[in-house]
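Please decode residue identities from the backbone states below.
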């Protein structure tokens, strides 16, 4: 099972949107997916309300054990979050999170959504993950934010040597704004090899898809069509990047 963690210590950058659409796209392609919500704000849990629930992340981090889940091809099973999920830097929580995520099995893929902070659960997930991906916003050029993300990855990589950084994914990108186009160009120049060569634009269809808990292709508007085409292109890149390309 390939485990992918969606990470950025800033909120509102599109983590949950990217995580949920990745899960829907993987399932559409016939893969089984465990979607893990590590954020106490429960946004992924809300988006995945239509899916079967296979466990609770709170239980995972309290016990260090993963729920045993059997999935059908093309199925998404949610490991749901709760209000009580701690935002902590406690070492024991880090270790139990890592242990539970490592133990998680039974699907082709695991997509892990995270809170907007580098908490013990996030580091724990990263220690047991295969890939990390970081959506970034281009509203204000925040070099600090990107540096923090990269620093966290380097720290994790010292322990989890096989984790790969897929890159920074420009997200909620407003291509109409010159300032955002300038920022994208600046970021692309500063972090040449780290920027994913796709952007998820700011489109109302992504909000609609999250509200309805569905694949963005199912949003029957012009915005939905454009979003579906753009995410599909990114998804094809993603599959190749994780070693699933044809
Ligand atoms: N590409 C996008 N276009 C339009 N709205 C988006 C897009 N990505 C996210 N949003 C909206 O922005 C808000 C924050 O996105 P979310 O994915 O929850 O970010 P995060 O998980 O990083 O906090 C949500 O209301 C979401 O629906
Ligand atoms: Mg979120």
């Amino acid at each position: 099972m390939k485990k992918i963690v969606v990470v950025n210590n800033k909120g509102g950058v599109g983590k949950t949107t990217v995580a949920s659409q990745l899960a829907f796209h993987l399932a559409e392609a016939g893969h089984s997916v465990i979607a893990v919500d590590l954020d106490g704000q429960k946004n992924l849990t809300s988006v995945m309300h239509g899916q079967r629930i296979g466990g609770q992340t709170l239980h995972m981090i309290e016990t260090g054990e993963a729920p045993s889940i059997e999935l059908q091809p093309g199925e998404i099973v949610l490991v749901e979050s709760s209000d009580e999920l701690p935002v902590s830097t406690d070492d024991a929580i880090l270790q139990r999170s890592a242990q539970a995520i490592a133990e998680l099995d039974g699907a082709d893929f695991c997509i892990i959504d995270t809170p907007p902070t580098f908490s013990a659960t996030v580091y724990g997930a990263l220690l047991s993950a295969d890939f990390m991906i970081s959506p970034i916003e281009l509203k204000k050029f925040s070099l600090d934010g990107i540096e923090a993300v990269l620093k966290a990855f380097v720290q994790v990589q010292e322990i989890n040597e096989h984790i790969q950084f897929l890159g920074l994914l420009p997200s909620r990108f407003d291509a109409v704004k010159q300032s955002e186009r300038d920022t994208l160009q600046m970021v692309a120049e500063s972090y040449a090899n780290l920027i994913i060569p796709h952007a998820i634009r700011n489109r109302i269809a992504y909000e609609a898809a999250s509200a309805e808990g569905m694949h963005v292709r199912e949003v029957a508007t012009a915005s939905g069509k454009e979003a579906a085409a753009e995410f599909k292109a990114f998804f094809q890149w993603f599959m190749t990047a994780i070693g699933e390309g044809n």
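Observation: The mean pLDDT is 95.
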